[in-house]
Design brief:
Blueprint: E1 3-4, E2 10-13, E3 32-39, E4 42-47, E5 54-58, E6 62-64, E7 67-70, E8 77-80, H1 84-105, H2 109-131, H3 136-156, E9 164-165, E10 168-169, H4 177-192, E11 199-210, E12 217-226, E13 231-232, E14 237-241, E15 257-264, E16 272-282, E17 297-307, E18 319-323, E19 325-327, H5 336-342, E20 348-350, E21 356-365, H6 368-374, H7 376-380, E22 384-386, E23 402-412, E24 424-431, E25 453-455, E26 466-473, E27 484-492, E28 500-509, E29 521-526, E30 528-529, H8 540-543, E31 566-575, H9 582-588, H10 597-603, H11 609-614, H12 616-629, H13 631-648, H14 658-668, H15 674-687, H16 695-703, H17 705-723, H18 728-746, H19 751-756, H20 764-769, H21 782-789, H22 794-798, H23 803-815, H24 825-840, H25 842-845, H26 847-867, H27 871-883, H28 892-918, H29 925-948, H30 951-959, H31 964-982, H32 992-1016, H33 1024-1038, H34 1050-1060, H35 1063-1078, H36 1090-1097, H37 1102-1108, H38 1110-1123, H39 1127-1142, H40 1148-1161, H41 1168-1192, H42 1199-1216, H43 1219-1235, H44 1239-1251, E32 1259-1260, E33 1269-1270, H45 1271-1288, H46 1292-1308, H47 1312-1331, ...
Parallel strand pairs: 15-22, 36-37
Antiparallel strand pairs: 1-3, 2-3, 2-6, 3-4, 4-5, 7-8, 9-10, 11-15, 11-21, 12-13, 12-14, 12-16, 16-17, 18-21, 19-20, 23-26, 23-31, 24-25, 24-27, 27-28, 28-30, 29-31, 32-33, 34-35, 34-37, 35-40, 37-38, 38-39, 39-40
């Protein structure tokens, strides 16, 4: 049975549990669990990380921990009772663990490793805490380390700042908000602005001396030197080095280093130097022989200096090498360091070029205890401490020192009868009173133990030596009296014996008989002569002698003889026990000289403070002793001395002696009667506070009042103890009188304030930093001085009086202060400081006294806040007031206090916050911090007050307003303040704890105030402003970043929900409730609140969304009632959705929820239909916006981004009619295109905006990046930008049209300068068309299937324009990279419904063939290829691809009998190129081609190719005959090996003819084509024989032989006799002109080639589907010509339809068209795995059949060039290319004329050569057509055809229509020569022709025609789109097809000309309802004829010769209308909407 647990409530999992048992709970090691029930060794509960899942788990898997339970029962909360630091550590490490792994993923290696080390440190410290064996101090230290590391990690990871108190986290609900703010602010300030250390220390470590001439031991002496004051400031660090220059004691490393301590910040400056003096120990001369002298002397060696400023740049631990210098003369040794510093180069030089001192130096910052903690290893090894000379800046009371510093300065000696000067050495001893030498009391420096004697260094031959060596004598105090220093002088001989001869001595006593020590300063000592062997052990013999010049002992005549020689020393005493001051000694011995008492008391103020504090207790005892014995006489003087001493302790240097005085008062003070005199004298001074002549002295007295009161109180206590409380009443009366005097002088407004209050303005910040009452005060008045120290008296008064009594006394004193605010500001500041100290005092903490003091405190605060003065101090006082009021304190006294504060301060507090937040922030960083501090403190005070207010307080507050206006003002004020508090900048970003507390207070207050809003401001009292303020506040409250719980970690989110719940939902419910209360007033907020409420609903909180979304239904309903529609709601929703969702708000769930909730709400509404429409529109917009946002997250620009933007752009225009949003997205799309370098698409995109503008002077406002300008200027700028982009995209034809349009404008304004420039630009574009190479792009059909695609792609198919050189495999790979989760479909069949509905992504990609719309240009003769090619790939609406299949039984012997082709035509919504590289397929048309039709098409293509090559050869357009050779070989050889024979077997047999009687005409046509091919071949062989080189004759002979074999296989024995007249003979005897077949007669010298087209041929695009004729033939040709697969490409041999690949339209070369079927086709040099199988229609990308589905044949002009084009595209070296180009001169495009023209010419039907006059005179680059190559080849191997890009400016769905308002402009087309019109010229084909491809994949070299050769149209007009890709086209940018874009205006009333357009009969008529294209270039009226687009124009019968611009096409009645397509009459395009001021 399960039993609820009592004590087993909380535990940690110690073993993983998988939860495999029924109801088992899966647990991991380390999880914490809360236990609910237990049963037989099992627990039931939940893991705290996921409290919603409950289950059972074994009890032995859990380690129980102590915990306390809150709210026992169903919703109980368990809180572990372990140390809060442990709890915080545990939870923090868990959070860090997750984030730490993310650091690794984000490649933030540095932080990853640092955090790892910190986490390990914390875990180690955690173990120490858990063990529980630490001492209290150690535990505190460990916790400090833990919290420091936790804070560091939180800061690095961007986590929240944790408020702590004594290292433990605080619960914000348990402390006041002001206290919480202070904790947060303290930690934040500590983190941001570390307090600069006031104390610094220099660590010095000696490494070595590097010098070449060593060999003697050395002494190295470090010290710090102040070059400014020219004195040392530290003791010395002394170190001995061995002969190698290394430290002498390597086993004692502590001797190698020292720490120079207690450097102040002022001493870290550039004129403080580290000086290093080096003394050698050895012979007198460095170069003396070793045996010269055995005695060793200390001799100068070198010196080095380093400025301490060099260390300030960085605390580098790297070794420094200091240069060592030597004196030029030894006499300057004492000042060598000064000379080096002053750079007096003449006095020193380097000891050696390689000499240097290696040292390590490091500056450490902080007090010495901190350094000990941080550098423990340094101190554990016993580093020596080198002190400063004298006391440090702060003298500590317990410090014990007694150091005498002696500097051996110099001496003056006689020669002593010698010819040279002496070598003097000084030896020093310290001798006690008994004559014994004191051992070990001479210290050479730290690092070396003290010695008993000192030997100076020796200066060679110098009778006036200067040493300047500093020694320290740490002599104990008890040995100081009677001790003296003796200095002995010896001459050091340099002879062999090296004797040291004593010749004199000096001495000086350390203390005088009166107890004074040796005074500081320089002393000139007498040198007493003595014999060499004199015995100085008996000190009594010489102590009677005089020791210093000027001091002689009486009756001693010897003194006079000793005065010629002198010795100087400098002494400095640093002692806490001894004094050199005689006045101090006299005062302490006042009883021995009673007559000197008055003088001693007077001189006390002149004694140095350090002397007084050294003897503080003795001095105080003396003063009170004098007071007790003679108070009448000395009372006033003693009082003054006491005041002086008390004020002395206010000095920062002696501040630490205050506790010494406190201890003295408590323990040692014995003046029981002193209180009487002290009260009397103090009152006397206070009564005379207004006397100006005494004010300075009185100020001193008032400053000291704290300790005076302490002495008074302690004295009274001692008296009461001694007397049993006598005279109590008298004492009280004295105190009352004293305080009466205080109140009286405080109340003196004028006299006291003006006469005495002359203190300067004290800065508030000084008070905050230091509560010293005297900080910053200059001349202070009595009021100010008294007030600054008065609060310190409270604690003393409490020792004598009751709390209430003291409170009343203080209340009266503070209440007597003047209330006039116009008085002295300094006094007001000090007064406020006094009030602040009162609030901080112990007196105020008592509730009884607080209730008495609070009103007077609030009164003064109110006055200051009202005047906006002293805000920092006011904030601090308020904070302290609220710190004492805990949350949820229900005590009556607290409630009453809150009442007083609310009534007194709430209003002024709100006004103050509004005032200070509206000020501009100060510029200085310090002032800005101060500004932020005061703002934060006031805010925390307000929040504290509001949190303490109860229902009663709120009710009283609201009732206190007399009128509704007052209440309104209050509500507006508090709502405004709340909005300020919600601002992100109110608190630092990591103060989440503070923000949550503030929000909790705000929402609580708002809930109270909303009732007042409902009761007072509804119905007839409705106030829009206050309701708007309320809603605005609620919305920004919900949108706060700190409340978005979804962004929090799970643990943080759980804590917030447990403590506060989701405050967003609470506020959302309140918004809904208030909205419902508005009633008809809701209309005031429609549509203003739609945006804010929409922003709220986008927050991903389901409950909040469910509450808020229904408000939109309500808005729609009320708007419907008011206006009959809800257009405003719709417009606002759409506008805000775009901006909000682009910011990352909203998701798919929201879209579904929005749709479902509102649809459900409007079910029963009368306006349901329009509501559903609105909801559907908004939902569709959301879909697109979500897709757009997802796409924009990606880094690189790809098709998905562009497609998504296009989708959204079109949606805004077509469905929403949002012009401004439409224009914004136009520019977003434009930027995307520029980034992707899609310049053509960028130009088209910008044309969309240009379309909306007129050539007018209407002013436009500043918009996007456009300045304020006129509409004309903006349109001009757009035109120029578009032209530039067309130029960069090589779409020069489009740029020409725009050039003309803008030139028209310039001309109309007579701006000839710009007109000239524009004409030159137009001319340059024409040049580029003719001279520069352009690439033709590939086109690919892409299907996106499956629900995982974005909405704008889902289950749709598109046609995409490929990039330059991009083949199918590259395109497919690019698409798979853009959609990495997509699956590539390996077939071209339409997918079924399961694919459409699949939760996946499927891509179906294959190449398609474009079907050009513009036939007129392509069919016109004499137009160069680089002009025609533009129209082949531009303005393309229709694309096709073919799929082979078998019908019926497949004949294994001849597959062509049953091989059919399914041809699919795709029609796009817009033409390509356009504003995107891809457009959606709008319509599919599918037709089937029979095997016979396919065969006809293949033969027609091959015949066409042969004619072209023969013609080129005849006209000498090709320099090399190889292309013709290879083509003839391919056709003849294929025929021999079974080529056309297969067709005969398939279609000419009797069985087929009988079974297909309907195909009789087609069979006849096929037979004609075969015979025609034979005739062409015979003629071709004749031409070939004429031009074939000698080495190719064998091949020619072979071809001739094979041709006769072929003829025999065709049943042709010989041609008829009339062959010479008419070589091509037709069985029916007449050419069938109507079927496009005309008899052709050929001869080797000339020929007329009449192209034939089957009824299925497509006139402009011959991407025919054909089969290759024989694989064996192609192999043989390859072997003969030396080219592998190139033969197939060059000869345009097409594969059989069954072998076509799905992978690309151009997967094989389109150049090879064969004339007969083949049973097997494959590349002769490829492995079997690359051969195409007829049956296989679903292969891998490189092996599956070619799509579209067959390769397309190229025009004849390109067949000769395919090899070179591909080779050239693969970056062939220039030299090689040049040689190839030379060969091009003989290879050029065909010069074949049109059918009718040929028929009308000479009767003998021979082909004349092209005349030289028809050749083009302009060179153009890369004019040779580059054929398509196999798409399966690598990019570098593929042929590229550089042809012009196209332009069509009507790219919409109705681009072929013209409107009544204007006529379309066609791109410029060079005119053809005048020729006779013929009815057959414009015959159009009536059926599309299939495209065929060869599967060959080899690298093919093509031959480029000469750039100067003439290119006629003829057969070339039927050329297919070539390979290559260039961003060259323009898609339409407007939805109209024919309206006004040209910019040309008609003159007069010339009516617009409407030109019909035509289409093939098979094409369905376009629907009238189709969406027009987004853009077309149009003209409103014409100034001159402007040509139509070629898709619409009809060639004129008699075109003018070389017009400057294209002529307007006119319809020709002579054209055969039967072959033209017809379209419905064009509908007028609506005029574009104008952009309002955009």
């Amino acid at each position: 049975m399960w039993i609820p647990t009592e004590h087993e409530k909380y535990g940690v999992v110690i073993a993983g549990f998988r939860g495999t048992v029924p109801h088992g709970l899966s647990l991991e090691i380390g999880d914490t669990v809360q236990i609910l029930e237990k049963c037989d060794g099992w627990y039931r509960g939940f893991a705290l990380k996921n409290p919603n899942v409950k289950g059972i788990f074994p009890s032995n898997y859990i380690h129980l921990k102590n915990a306390c339970v809150k709210n026992k029962g169903q919703f109980e909360m368990v809180i572990p009772t372990e140390d809060s630091v442990i709890t915080e550590m545990t939870s923090t490490l868990r959070d860090w663990g997750t984030m730490w792994k993310q650091l690794y993923v984000r490649n933030e290696g540095d932080l990853f490793h640092r955090l790892w080390h910190i986490m390990n440190e914390i875990l180690d410290l955690r173990r120490q805490v858990l063990v529980g064996h630490l001492t209290h101090d150690r535990m505190k230290d460990v916790k400090r380390h833990i919290t420091a590391r936790l804070d560091w990690g939180n800061e690095q990871l961007g986590l929240d700042l944790v408020p702590r108190k004594e290292y433990a986290m605080v619960d914000p609900e348990e402390i006041s908000i002001t206290e919480l703010y202070r904790l947060m602010e303290h930690r934040h300030r500590k983190k941001d602005t570390p307090v600069p250390a006031s104390s610094h220390h220099l660590f010095v470590q000696m490494k070595s001396l590097m010098c070449s001439n060593l060999g003697e031991e050395l002494e190295v002496i470090f010290s710090l030197f102040d070059s400014k004051e020219n004195r040392p400031i530290s003791e010395r660090f002394f170190l001995r080095l061995n002969r190698n220059g290394l430290p002498k004691c390597p086993e004692k490393p502590e001797r190698h280093c020292s720490l120079f301590v207690d450097l102040s910040s002022s001493e870290l400056r550039k004129d403080i130097y580290i000086t290093v003096h080096i003394i050698r120990i050895g012979r007198m001369g460095a170069g003396e022989k070793k045996n010269a002298c055995n005695v060793q002397y200390r001799r100068p060696f070198g010196c080095a200096v380093l400025s301490i400023a060099d260390l300030l740049a960085g605390d580098s631990k790297d070794d420094l090498i200091l240069k060592v210098y030597m004196c030029n003369t030894e006499s300057d040794w004492y000042q060598i360091h000064e000379n080096i510093i002053k750079k007096l180069n003449a006095r020193y030089n380097l000891t050696g070029s390689n000499a240097g001192l290696a040292v390590s130096l490091q500056l450490l910052h902080g007090d010495i205890e901190q350094i000990r903690r941080e550098y423990t290893s340094m101190f554990t090894h016993g580093v020596s401490i080198t002190r400063k000379l004298g006391f440090s800046n702060i003298i500590m009371p317990g410090e014990m020192r007694n150091d005498l510093y002696i500097t051996v300065e110099r001496g003056e000696f006689e020669k002593g009868g010698k010819s040279v000067a002496r070598n003097v050495e000084v030896t020093m001893h310290v001798v006690d009173s008994s004559g014994q030498i004191l051992r070990d009391f001479i210290s050479f420096g730290s690092g070396e133990p003290p010695a008993s004697e000192y030997h100076s260094f020796v200066l060679y031959h110098n009778n006036g030596p200067r040493w300047a060596e500093l020694l320290k004598l740490p002599i104990p105090v008890d040995k100081f009296r009677g001790a003296h220093i003796r200095c002995e002088f010896r001459h050091c001989s340099t002879k062999e014996k090296g004797e040291k001869k004593l010749f004199g001595f000096s001495f000086v006593p350390l203390m005088q008989e009166n107890g004074r020590t040796l005074p500081d300063g320089t002393h000139e000592l007498i040198v007493h002569k003595c014999e060499e062997n004199a015995n100085l052990q008996d000190s009594s013999r010489y102590l009677k002698l005089p020791f210093s010049k000027g001091i002689f002992l009486a009756n001693n005549s010897q003194a006079v003889k000793t005065t010629k020689e002198s010795f100087w020393i400098t002494s400095f005493l640093c002692s806490t026990k001894l004094t050199q001051n005689g006045d101090m000694l006299d005062l302490l011995k006042w009883r021995t000289h009673p007559d000197k008492i008055a003088g001693c008391l007077s001189k006390l103020k002149e004694i140095d403070g350090s002397e007084i504090v050294k003897f503080l207790q003795d001095t105080l005892d003396t003063l009170f002793g004098i007071l007790d014995e003679n108070s009448q006489k000395y009372g006033s003087k003693v009082f003054d001395c006491l005041v002086h001493i008390i004020n002395l302790l206010q000095d920062s240097k002696f501040h630490h002696f205050k506790p010494v005085m406190d201890t003295y008062i408590e323990s040692h003070f014995a003046g029981a009667l002193a209180y009487r005199d002290l009260i009397k004298v103090l009152k006397w001074h206070i009564d005379r506070v207004t006397e100006v002549d005494l004010h300075e002295h009185i100020q001193e007295v008032l400053k000291a009042q704290e300790y005076i009161f302490k002495y008074i109180v302690q004295s009274r206590r001692l008296f009461s103890i001694a007397t049993g409380g006598q005279n109590e009443e008298e004492f009280r009366c004295c105190i009352q009188e004293l305080l009466m005097s205080v109140r009286f002088f405080l109340s003196q407004e004028s006299k006291g304030a003006s006469a005495l209050c002359q203190l300067q303005r004290q800065e508030d910040l000084n008070y905050i930093n230091s509560f010293s009452p005297l900080a910053g005060i200059g001349e202070e008045g009595g009021n100010a001085v008294f007030l600054s120290s008065f609060p310190s008296v409270y604690s003393e008064l409490l020792k004598l009086f009751d709390v209430r009594e003291v409170a009343n006394l203080v209340h009266d004193a503070l209440g007597s202060l003047p209330t006039v605010m116009q008085g002295d500001e300094s006094l007001q500041a000090v007064k406020l400081q006094s009030i602040g100290k009162t609030v901080e005092s112990h007196l105020y903490t008592n509730p009884d006294s607080r209730y008495i003091l609070l009103p007077v405190v609030l009164h003064h605060l109110h006055m200051h806040l009202q005047e906006q003065k002293d805000l920092i101090m006011c904030a601090r006082i308020l904070s302290n007031i609220f710190c004492l009021i805990k949350k949820n304190s229900s005590e009556k006294s607290v409630l009453e206090e809150i009442d007083v504060i609310v009534s007194s301060l709430l209003d002024i507090l709100l006004r103050t916050i509004l005032e200070i937040t509206s000020r501009p922030q100060p510029s200085g960083s310090a002032m800005r911090l101060q500004f932020q501090d005061v703002t934060g403190e006031f805010v925390s005070c307000l929040l504290s007050l509001l949190r303490q207010m109860t229902d009663r307080h709120y009710q009283q507050l609201l009732d206190s307003f007399n009128t509704k206006e007052d209440l309104r003002d209050f509500l507006l004020q508090i709502f405004t303040v709340f909005r300020i508090l919600i601002r992100p900048e109110m608190f630092p970003k990591d103060w989440t704890v503070m923000r949550l507390v503030a929000n909790n207070v705000i929402i609580t207050t708002v809930l109270y105030l909303s009732d007042a809003l409902r009761k007072n401001f509804l119905n007839e009292n409705f106030d829009y402003k206050i309701w708007d303020s309320y809603f605005f506040l609620a919305v920004i409250f919900i949108n706060q970043l700190c409340l978005q719980l979804e962004m929090f970690t799970p643990s943080k989110k759980k804590k917030v929900l447990e403590k506060y719940g989701d405050m967003r939902v609470t506020m959302g419910c309140e918004i809904f409730s208030m909205w419902q209360n508005l009633g008809e007033h809701k209309l005031h907020f429609i549509p203003a609140l739609i945006g804010p409420f929409l922003e709220v609903t986008l927050i991903p909180q389901p409950d909040l969304r469910n509450v808020m979304i229904p408000i939109f239904h309500d808005m729609m309903d009320w708007e419907q009632r008011r206006s009959g529609n809800f257009k405003q709601v719709e417009a606002k929703l759409i506008d805000k959705l775009d901006s909000l969702m682009s910011e990352g708000k909203g998701d798919e769930t929201y879209r579904e929820l929005f749709n479902s909730i509102l649809l459900k709400k409007i079910e029963r509404e009368t306006w349901r239909e329009s509501g559903v429409s609105l909801i559907a529109t908004v939902t569709r917009l959301m879909e697109r916006l979500l897709d757009y946002r997802d796409c924009m997250k990606m880094g690189e620009v790809d098709g998905k981004k562009i497609g998504c933007t296009v989708s959204l752009l079109n949606f805004y225009k077509t469905e929403l009619n949002k012009e401004e949003m439409y224009i914004r997205y136009i520019h977003k799309l434009y930027d995307l295109h520029l980034k992707a370098q899609n310049f053509t698409e960028a130009a088209y995109t910008l044309l969309l905006y240009d379309e909306l503008l007129e050539w007018s002077d209407r002013p436009l406002r500043e918009f996007l990046n456009y300045p304020m300008q006129t509409e004309w200027q903006r349109k001009e700028y757009l035109h120029l930008t578009i032209i530039q982009n067309f130029d960069r995209g090589k779409c020069w034809e489009n740029g020409i049209i725009l050039c003309r349009k803008i030139a028209e404008q310039y001309e109309s304004y007579y701006d000839y300068r710009n007109l000239s420039k524009m004409r030159m630009m137009e001319a340059s574009l024409y040049d580029k068309i003719m001279d520069q190479q352009r690439l033709e792009p590939e086109f690919f059909r892409v299907g996106f299937y499956g629900k995982k695609f974005p909405f704008f792609l889902r289950n749709k198919e598109f046609v995409c324009r490929g990039h330059d050189y991009e083949r199918l495999e590259a395109f497919q790979q690019r698409m798979l990279n853009e959609f990495p989760h997509a699956i590539a479909m390996q077939h071209a069949n339409q997918p079924d419904e399961t694919i459409f509905q699949a939760e996946a992504q499927y891509l179906q990609i294959y190449a398609v063939t474009p079907i050009p719309e513009n036939q007129e240009v392509l069919q016109r003769d004499g137009i160069p290829d680089n002009i025609k090619s533009f129209y082949k790939v531009n303005h393309i609406w229709r694309f096709r691809y073919d799929r082979p299949f078998h019908k019926g039984t497949k004949d294994k012997e001849n597959e062509f009998k049953s091989l059919w082709v399914e041809r699919t035509t795709l029609i796009l919504v817009q033409s390509l190129p356009g504003i995107s590289r891809w457009f959606e397929v709008e319509k599919r048309e599918v037709v089937e081609m029979s095997p016979l039709e396919n065969a006809i098409e293949v033969l027609e293509n091959k015949n066409q190719q042969l004619r072209t090559l023969i013609s080129q050869c005849q006209t000498r357009q090709m320099q090399n005959i190889n292309p013709l050779t290879m083509c003839l070989n391919g056709v003849i050889d294929a025929a021999v090996n079974g080529g056309v024979t297969r067709y005969q077997e398939a279609f000419f047999v009797k069985e087929y003819v009988l079974n297909h009687p309907e195909d009789g005409e087609k069979i006849t046509r096929l037979r004609e084509l075969m015979l025609e091919q034979a005739q062409i071949l015979e003629f071709g062989l004749a031409v070939h024989e004429k031009f074939v080189p000698q080495d190719m004759r064998p091949l020619h002979k072979k071809l001739v032989d094979q041709f006769f074999v072929m003829k025999s296989s065709l049943g042709i024995q010989e041609f008829s006799a009339c062959v010479q007249a008419s070589p091509i003979h037709f069985p029916n005897g007449s050419p069938r002109v109507c079927r496009n077949s005309v008899p052709v007669s050929m001869s080797p010298d000339g020929a007329r080639v009449i192209p034939r087209r089957s009824p299925l041929s497509y006139p402009a695009v011959n991407r025919y589907s054909s089969s290759s004729l024989s694989s064996q033939a192609s192999a043989e040709v390859s072997n003969i010509t030396g080219q592998s697969e190139s033969s197939d490409e060059v000869f345009n041999m097409q594969p059989s339809p069954s072998t076509s690949s799905l992978s690309s339209t151009h997967s094989a070369s389109p150049n090879v068209t064969s004339s007969a079927p083949s049973s097997a086709r494959a590349s002769p040099l490829l492995s079997d795995k690359h051969k195409h199988s007829r049956e296989n229609s679903c292969l891998s990308p490189r092996e599956r059949p070619c799509s579209a589905i067959y390769p397309t044949s190229l025009e004849a002009s390109q067949t000769a060039n395919s090899c070179f084009a591909k080779w050239n595209a693969a970056s062939v070296p220039h030299s090689t290319r040049d040689s190839i180009r030379e060969a091009e001169e003989h290879v050029g495009p065909a010069s074949t004329l049109s059918e009718t023209r040929l028929a009308a010419k000479s009767p003998n039907l021979s082909l004349p050569s092209v005349s030289q006059e028809r050749r083009m005179l302009f060179n153009h680059i890369g004019d040779g057509a580059l054929p398509r190559s196999d798409s399966n080849l690598p990019g570098t191997d593929k042929a590229v055809n550089a042809t012009p890009s196209s332009w069509s400016l009507d790219s919409g769905k109705e681009a072929r229509n013209t409107s009544d308002s204007g006529k379309l402009i066609s791109p410029p087309v060079p005119p053809r020569p005048a020729q006779t019109a013929s009815p057959s010229r414009h015959v159009a084909s009536v059926s599309p022709s299939p495209a065929g491809r060869s599967p060959m994949k080899g690298s093919v070299q093509s031959f480029t025609p000469s750039p100067v050769e003439y290119h006629s149209s003829g057969l070339i007009s039927n050329s297919p789109v070539l390979s290559g890709s260039y961003s060259s086209g323009i898609s339409s940018l407007s939805r109209c097809s024919t309206s006004e874009t040209s910019g040309f205006e008609s003159q007069g009333s010339e009516p617009p000309v409407t030109v019909p357009s035509y289409s093939v009969p098979e094409e369905p008529v376009r629907k009238e309802s189709k969406t027009p294209p987004p853009y077309s270039v149009y003209e409103r009226t014409l100034k001159r004829p402007v040509p139509l687009p070629h898709s619409l124009s009809i060639p004129p019968t008699d075109p003018p010769a070389l017009p400057p611009k294209p002529q307007l096409g006119r319809p020709s009645n002579a054209d055969s209308s039967s072959s033209r397509r017809t379209e419905p009459a064009p509908r007028p395009r609506p005029l574009p909407r104008k952009v309002s001021q955009l």
